[in-house]
Amino acid sequence: MSRKKVIAVSGGVGGAKLSQGLAAEMDASDLTVIINTGDDSWHYGLFVTPDIDTQLYTLSGRADLDRGWGRSGETWNAMNALRELGEDVWFNLGDKDLGLNLLRTARLARGDRLTDITRDFARAFGIASTLLPMCDQPVSTQLRCTDGDYDFHDWFVAHKTKPEVRDVRFRGAETAEMSGEVRAALFDPDLAAVIICPSNPYLSIAPVLAVPGLQQALIDCPAPVVGVTPVVGGAAIKGPTAEMMRGFDVPVTATSAAELHADIFDGYIIDERDSDQLPDFTRRLPDLAVTTADTMMVDLPAKRRLARAALDFADELARR
Amino acid sequence: MSRKKVIAVSGGVGGAKLSQGLAAEMDASDLTVIINTGDDSWHYGLFVTPDIDTQLYTLSGRADLDRGWGRSGETWNAMNALRELGEDVWFNLGDKDLGLNLLRTARLARGDRLTDITRDFARAFGIASTLLPMCDQPVSTQLRCTDGDYDFHDWFVAHKTKPEVRDVRFRGAETAEMSGEVRAALFDPDLAAVIICPSNPYLSIAPVLAVPGLQQALIDCPAPVVGVTPVVGGAAIKGPTAEMMRGFDVPVTATSAAELHADIFDGYIIDERDSDQLPDFTRRLPDLAVTTADTMMVDLPAKRRLARAALDFADELARR
To answer: Model's pTM, two decimal places?
Structure first.
């Protein structure tokens, strides 16, 4: 590629894995990750932004890969002290994680932008890539379920994704604004590719696209926009994507996942196990270029292989 | 004693030791500790009230007796995470301590009184005695030093008590109010004794007395008010009492310490090592009853012996 900048649009764990692969397969300083902040919420006066933290911890080698979330070598003494005081703590924040969240909350309180705070944290952690929150205004993912309305974490953590979702709304998104940094990344003439990570299409990708102008920027983007399926073999790798698709009467297939945001994609990567989906794509999304790869990302080599496949696919699409 | 309620007026570590001795030597539920809150301050958005916490941890057996402050089995991962992010953290909050402070701050933010929060924490920790903040309004100890003005913790922790103190002020004290609970304790007809703990007279006892009406209530109190010296053998057991006395050109003796708040005391306990001070007391404070005891409180039996001595002395004063 002559152009060399790459954007990854990402939610939490799955997106962080692919971001890590991308950062390893390219000059990491050319990678910008635009991160969902719809999951952000307040707990005991702390502003918690899980998808940014997952990226910070994963890209700096601080993530607990066994547990699948949070930091390695984490302890839980603060939350246990709350329980000792009779609190029903359903949102588990590790002690190290708490330290980071204390500082972020204190900086937000004195008027710093989430974008600047995230940049400083990434630098302090030695991350060469640029991590950008999707916007600096609060956006809150709200789930309308068959039995009532839920904040994201109330539904996700406290209710274990059990209530069936009828509608998803992003409170605050209509008045949010692309930051100068997100705009500059999207309109960078050196932009070679946009990778939409295998994150939940309803809860991780949709809130990013809900920031005014962002979806249109991806549609208009001269660089190829490549999606990676969050659905493999009729299931989601992680999280409630499959249950939500079923709840919306959407078949749990890569084709249907691609259809959810088909307008932004120039290319789409499905798992090699799902190559029987290819005729479906040809029939239902005839303008979308599709290829197969191993999307499971079980270890760093696998993350790098998927990242390489996405970069090569974008390169090929750019040359078409 | 026929009357059985006892009040202890206390700062941090020394006062907590004597409170623990009192709680063991009497029916703990008859003990009320009125605690200095002039050291309270904000760190990373958390409201930290060290003297209350020292009492909570000491009276519930959670204090780290070796370190002399904070909780036993404490970890420091949150503060270390802040340091990793480049913060110059000079105020060390353990992870368990942080959990308690998170909850207190969140409850204050929703309008709960410090008095109610402290009561709930004490109950959750199984403390039978009543712990009362000196008031529910913020009072902040300010030190005017030869080289400028300091907040208490800035002077105490960050500057290690080095700047020489010229004046101490309690910002907010003039508009503070005795809570209903403090008032009820002070005017309880069943009150048998008030023990002024061996805490720093300038930084721990003076702020309590600065709450409007509180000093007068102690002066008028029908129950004996017994002070315990914070000075032994020309030095303070702990903390900057001696340096401050020298800075104010006050001799570092038990007699001078007693003179600082002589108007409230009916009796005063000096250390048995300082019995050569007795003629000084007779000369300078002829109306004050004085006795000697071992005031060092090196272990629980020693705390109990001093508590017993104070209770017996008050009993004797009441019968005079």
So the answer is: 0.90
